[in-house]
Amino acid sequence: MSSQLLDIQSSPFVISNDNTEQQIYGYTVYNGTVNAAKVLRVIFIGKLSTKTLAPGTITLKFKFGAIEVTVISETLLLGLTDKAFMIVLDCWLIPGTTDFALIDGSFTQDGADIFTPAGQRFNISSGAVNFGVNNLISVTIQFSVANANNSFERTMLALWEV
Fold first, then answer.
1. Residue 61 needs a FRET pair 20 to 30 A away by CA distance; which of 38, 44, 151, 157 works?
2. Are 34 and 95 in contact (CB under 8 A)?
């Protein structure tokens, strides 16, 4: 089975000076399109910058319909400038008598550039869904502190059926 590119976002999308939850990506899985088990994968790269004093926390959520997983919710390091990261998010869609979805997400930083301790972050959630209705895949970001120096940039994003 080969992978199929479903969507690509190549224009940068920036959130800064804002402490409300903002959707940084959305894609609709239309009713009747999940007839066999499949995996949808969102991959994106970006950059983070923070203010030098008390930048607060950042929360990244991944959602499929009503199912939600918090991939990260951590205190940022001080005074970051364009620190690179990569995020991989998977939707495991399994139709059946009761339709089911499992979603997971991982956040990879370069060393301890963004959070301490260093390393990858991962989280998972699952539940019953209804593939007979439209379901929205969404990714949201929220800073706890609104400051012009707190900036999240989605540089490139691709959605694949794998």
1. 38
2. yes
